[in-house]
Amino acid sequence: EEIDGGVASLVAQMIETMYAAPGVGLAANQVGVSRRLFVYDAGDGPITVINPRLVESEGEFTYTEACLSVPGHAWDITRPDRVHVIGLDLDGNELSLEASEFEGRIFQHELDHLDGILLVERLDDDQRREARAMLRREFTSAPVDPDGLASLLER
Ligand code: ZN
Is 110 a catalytic residue? Predict the structure, then answer.
C-alpha cells in the first residue's frame, strides 16, 4: 500500500536480476519477496507494475513460453491474447496497460507468479507428461528439487 524507498530499491534489484538472467519479466515472489509487483521490459525499457490486476482479457494466442524459475525449458502455451491490466507505477500513479501478443503474454505470466501459479501448471496433459519425465531425469543428478517443480507436475 505504501510505495516507500524499500519498494524502490527492491524494484531496482529486480530489474538488474531480470536483465542479468536474461529475462523479460520478473515477479517479486520469484526473488522471495511477498509483495504484489512485477517488472518487465517488452523492448521499450523497464516498467514496474505495483498491485497489478487483470481487468479484461480476450482472444487466443499461442506462444512459446519460458520461465526463469524453470530454467532451460519452454512450452507452447495458449492463453488469451489481449489483456487489460491496471496497477500503480513507482510514483503511485495509476497505470492502465493494454497489450496483446508478446507483451500481453508477459503480463499474464507475471500475474500467474503473483497468484502462485507456475508455468508447469499451465501445461496440457501431453506436455505435462513430457515435462515430468524431463524433470525426473534432471533431478536424478540433483539432490533436491528446491522449487518443488516435480510435485507441481504430479497435480
Ligand atoms: Zn516465470
Answer: yes
